[in-house]
Amino acid sequence: MGEGNDIPLVGGKSFTAVAINCAAKAGEWIKTKLGNHTSLSIKYSAQDLVTEVDKGAEKMIRNLVGTHFPHHSFLGEEGVEPGPEASTKALQSVKDAEYLWIVDPIDGTTNFVHGFPYFSVSIALAHWGEVIVGVVYDPMRDELFVAEKGKGAYVRGRRMAVSGEQTLRDSLLATGFPADPNYAQPLNMKQLQAIAPQVRNVRSLGSAALHMAYVASGRLSGFWEIGLNSWDLAAGALLVKESGGAVTDLQGNEYHLGVRHVAASNSHLHGEFLQVLQQAEAGS
Ligand code: IPD
Ligand code: CA
Ligand code: CA
Questions:
Q1: Ligand 1 pocket by C-beta < 6 Å: which residues?
Q2: Beta bridge partners of 107
Q3: Would residue 77 show up in a list of annotated catalytic residues for this protein?
């Protein structure tokens, strides 16, 4: 996949090659900084953290993308004011760009800050609002998850496929615990309470992008979370879809860049999954 001949490319690299290169370079650098970050700030709430490594990694990716594709648009978490309103506005202003790179330089900053070795770099490219390339890189395991629209998804060079569990009873799910104490947190707790007794178990590892990559690779049967942003989900959503899974909002509408409350699964148990989530919401 690459741009037409009329647009000059430095080195002539394809979109996917650039996405992989950016994720690998940023990830390697982030890994060297584990346990050595020097500045820690709070963004929107006490649970919303940022370090100089988040900012540095985003700058590195932005510069690399800009070198190859200077006319493309760029939406990175660290370039947006904190909070859901600002995120929605930022997405609104670029979502219909011809080519839009959507980047979370470190997905799992809380883990990174605590030395918990589970975080990722998430890079997606959307064309007229539709994700066409998705890359999620886990630098601690050196695992690169890559998808191209219509061409499948791969991990460590092997084609990925979602898991085969047909029912919630046989499933391993994951969720993310939201920080927002007014809406998202109480709802997530209700959902967890409704789902936990019906499944094999529920995990919460702290990187939405990696949770999505694990659904794609069949390591998780499903994942849900309330209140995410486009940079948490865009790459992972393509990974799941290209691996045969389902990604929707909690009402069952197909994933698009504006989805904040997400359910992703191997598709077999999606109906049952949504039903339990919806019942919990109705009863909350
Ligand atoms: C967070 C992670 C976490 C999820 C949060 C996200 P960040 O992203 O994906 O797993 O539960 O909702 O905000 O802040 O580390 O990029
Ligand atoms: Ca994130
Ligand atoms: Ca982040």
A1: 104, 107-110, 176, 178, 206-208, 225, 228, 232
A2: 120
A3: yes
Domain shared by 69 and 153, yes or no: yes
User: Hey, is 78 helix, strand or coil?
Assistant: helix
Task: Tell how far the Cα of 2 is from the centroid of ligand 2, in angstroms.
Answer: 27
Last residue of a domain, one of 134, 159, 184: 159
Phi/psi of residue 229, each to 5°? -120, 170
pTM of the predicted model, to two decimals? Answer: 0.95
Domain count of the chain? Answer: 2
* 42/77 same-domain check: yes
38-49 tens-digit pLDDT:
888 888 787 888
Using alpha carbons, select from 264, 194, 213 the residue that is nearest to residue 23.
213
User: Which residues form the domain of 14?
Assistant: 4-159
Please count the other Cβ atoms lying within 10 Å of the Cβ belonging to residue 23. 27
CA of 106 to the centre of ligand 3 (A): 4
